[in-house]
Fold:
Amino acid sequence: MTDIAPARPTARPVTEDGGTQLLHDYIAACSNWGRWGEDDQVGALNLVGPEQVVRAAGLVRRGTPISLTMPYDQTGPQPGGFRNNPQLLLTATGTDHVGNAQDPLPGGFGPSRGFGFSDDVVVMATQCGTQWDSLSHIFWEGRMFNGRSAGQVTTRGAEANGIENFTGRIVMRGVLVDVPAHRGVAALDPGEAVGPAEVDAFLDAHDLSVAPGDALLVRTGFMASRRGAWGDYAGGAAPGLSLHMAPWLRAHDVAAVATDTWGVEVRPNEIDYFQPLHVVSLVHGGVAFGEMFDLDALAQDCARDGVYEFMFVASPLPLTGASGSPVSALAIK
Amino acid sequence: MTDIAPARPTARPVTEDGGTQLLHDYIAACSNWGRWGEDDQVGALNLVGPEQVVRAAGLVRRGTPISLTMPYDQTGPQPGGFRNNPQLLLTATGTDHVGNAQDPLPGGFGPSRGFGFSDDVVVMATQCGTQWDSLSHIFWEGRMFNGRSAGQVTTRGAEANGIENFTGRIVMRGVLVDVPAHRGVAALDPGEAVGPAEVDAFLDAHDLSVAPGDALLVRTGFMASRRGAWGDYAGGAAPGLSLHMAPWLRAHDVAAVATDTWGVEVRPNEIDYFQPLHVVSLVHGGVAFGEMFDLDALAQDCARDGVYEFMFVASPLPLTGASGSPVSALAIK
Amino acid sequence: MTDIAPARPTARPVTEDGGTQLLHDYIAACSNWGRWGEDDQVGALNLVGPEQVVRAAGLVRRGTPISLTMPYDQTGPQPGGFRNNPQLLLTATGTDHVGNAQDPLPGGFGPSRGFGFSDDVVVMATQCGTQWDSLSHIFWEGRMFNGRSAGQVTTRGAEANGIENFTGRIVMRGVLVDVPAHRGVAALDPGEAVGPAEVDAFLDAHDLSVAPGDALLVRTGFMASRRGAWGDYAGGAAPGLSLHMAPWLRAHDVAAVATDTWGVEVRPNEIDYFQPLHVVSLVHGGVAFGEMFDLDALAQDCARDGVYEFMFVASPLPLTGASGSPVSALAIK
Amino acid sequence: MTDIAPARPTARPVTEDGGTQLLHDYIAACSNWGRWGEDDQVGALNLVGPEQVVRAAGLVRRGTPISLTMPYDQTGPQPGGFRNNPQLLLTATGTDHVGNAQDPLPGGFGPSRGFGFSDDVVVMATQCGTQWDSLSHIFWEGRMFNGRSAGQVTTRGAEANGIENFTGRIVMRGVLVDVPAHRGVAALDPGEAVGPAEVDAFLDAHDLSVAPGDALLVRTGFMASRRGAWGDYAGGAAPGLSLHMAPWLRAHDVAAVATDTWGVEVRPNEIDYFQPLHVVSLVHGGVAFGEMFDLDALAQDCARDGVYEFMFVASPLPLTGASGSPVSALAIK
Structure:
């Protein structure tokens, strides 16, 4: 396998073919198509079995759940157009109740006799904030994970590989890699990549190793640096994982990877292909990709107690056939 | 406190005042307003502290997460009108990718070079399926939990008591009470109430007790009996908790209660007030109410291993100011 | 051209090939592909020029506009699933204003000082009620009107033939054919077709002829018979135009045709193809198809004054790239 | 009545009371509450009767309909937050058809046999682009037009004064006042107001008078100057009608007024009240307010033929209970 990865990759490599050979090598090396049978729709989450779940629960020592999810509201990072921030639309309000406009009760429930309620509808891009990509989210040359045709994903949703397959499956040990803390900076800059050497150095420094079925959470500090002034956070240049993490993820049999950035991997991309780590590790490796996870409170907690491993519970909603799902993700220590 | 509860309440009581005195007695007896300070927006979830979380994790013995969430799709239980089933709307598809309609990539991401993706938006009543009520969902005589004015819930959402306050807080021990299994029937009938005596009998029979901060999950079998032929499942007559569970919930300091029915409590209601258990235990008690939880797989598992307690992780999405939230709820055994 | 049309077609014909030859003959005979140039996206509306518009305005004699549009609300004919009734979601209410929840004004507009407002969002299938089909709505063997590839209609909308092309173009003479009045019945039954002979008889009886560029409005009484108890009005069996109207529409160069039914043409369809009149007259003829037009008030007015022609103004919203559009359609007499 | 209006008002007046007395004087002078009965929900559109409709049709001389409606799409003027641009969401596409993903046909319509279709849903703020305000849109001190309580506008929509009352009623003579053409500038600047003297001068110069029941269309050039680079077009500083147009509108019994700006009246407002012309002429006068009308093509046409009057047909959708409606507005000359 060609290795063009510098120790700390920060710039796009100069290869004459724009990375074509590298991409194909990585695909060949990292593919899990067929590994769990041709009917499999879960991918690397197969690596999480009862033993891994029990081990994860054993990491709950202090009894502290920490939320890793951003608020879903109009203050979110989506400027509109490609994806919008979620819009909450009230269908019943307290002002209606107070203004005597809920008597009789809406819904045909009779006289109010003091009772009132609020209700609402949310219009939400499934990938507007903290979220998991499904294995139907990304295609490569007409195929999605496990070799299924992209044509199975129509306007009626994904016939296979939809996010509902992940529901109930994302309960495992999580490990946080806090890159800016390790580097001694507030945040990585857009375009800065995090590669295997740096991840290994962090793990060594904290006497940790990553085991099959683990979730790897990588903090870049990018969310902290942009919070409330998002600019092009959603889709522009960003720090993130190097493409060269693909063989590392495969070698360690990581089940899920999540970052505090829009798209897990560094932007601009390191080779002349869009989101190549998605192509290698999600489409072919079947790894669950988590995006826009808010890792700041967790990082502070880990810095305090020195413990960078925890029970990770982040089961997505079973939105049948969806490309992704918002999630209430928790690190429980 | 007036006690009009029969051992197994199945019919609406005949009291001359239509239940007015009873309702006010229960409110007085069960209120937690001010118990955790005037700024509190979490209610009975305050009863879950580190000790309770550690205890919950200790219940993970076999390493088996069981999902308690119904699919969110057009097959759901909402016939439309008051609330609709969620609608998934694709903004990018595999057929677009295969049909060469993603080159250049949507979103301004340049030439596809083999890459493609799906994306989607969901239009979703926050209470369309498995969900938590927030403490801003129900009002009583102009007030919501902790004495706040219902007028704080406007078309812009709830200024206080919104569902985002529950995010990260619903991690505790869960106990399943499988009523139809105990009765030896497939499902309770609409209108059949589950009262304290029956819950106690079930717990005794399984050598269980409920502790402060626990989540009580009560299965009626109603979802199993209506699945796929929902009829008026959402809003019509249903089995459920008796109003007389209110003092029991308060006495045991239950933090959260959930059922496999549309609205936790029995319908038609036992007194001449709409959803009186919500009024007592949610508005005044601050208990988290979970509705349309799918408890069937869990019940089967519990019947198999005889263990009716588990780690319960069911953190709602932080939908700022919302009246409720869909949730990927898990029992982990 | 094969002629299998009975005088009053009410049953599906028995032809050995299921209507294949007939369909292809009609397509060949009625196609307007290329007739107005290869760049044309308007189809038969090209037949409406200044002369036709002036003539239409000349039909305004009494000064009476009559609305032909159903209310867009939850009482509409869409039971949900395939298409839903429109949902109006308030983002600001009078109860908020009265409850002092609009001070300061939402939107950052400062102190209210007595001012208040309501605002709303509608979630609406473009074809949920009274509406025009665009020329991008229907495909035949991979093509839409004027030979364009159906692949031009992606999740981002129609690159060509979208409904915005009709905006500003639907102003012409309209002629009402009131079939049940002619037959002396309240309404046609589901499955009853309206063919050329009956249309001609009606026109003769009222001393009318149809000219190029006219809009033909055909009332079946089906909406009147189902109003408020829609059942399967939207998509089930229905009266409507016979496939044999296709050559008639072409011969008379009708620009637009609309009915009081869900889908213009009779259902079940007369041959073994779905909506064959759409295939012939919309996909190939480029005729504007209007559906669920409420023709009842107009029919009453015409019966009163005996005048079945009028100025017809029914310009759709320019919803860029949409398959159709709701419309406030008017007959002005 | 206090008259503080300069000949060409361009700055906020300095009155010690911030305009309070002026506002109340104008309300008293311009109110139409009760004028057409206490049940009236149409306001100044009552001024359009058969005679006015016939007169309008008589203005169709060349047979040229001109659309006054902006495209409803993501290129629109709403940056998001308060209101968003409309989002078209496809529920069936040509790429699905071409990719063989519509066989069998969605909706249960059986085998495709060559047939295919597109379909879509729009999520749309009713006031996102070219639109009419309803008489339920604006409140003043707890009241809306005709003295009705603002409390009648709840999350379920307006019980009275909703936009559906305007459907079928907006067919009348329209008159265009092209202010920048008259001034010899490309566009008025934000903050520049158009007052009665300037409107009268324009009408005199073109030998026109405004009659009861007419629609007055006032072009400021603001849309032309911002098209495609909207900035704060929707809600920021803008040219527009002076508050002093209120008595003029009332004296001429104008039925409807529309501009090419976001909110009809000049912004910042001339007195210390938000949108005071709305308060006087819409809430009290019952005049139909049209906003974001695209008057550029019409202005060019009028400059060419020197005719600034036309048949105006701009009937809104009957969105039951809505605060406004998108509209396909036409000037027909």
Confidence is low (pLDDT under 50) at residues 1-11 of chain A.
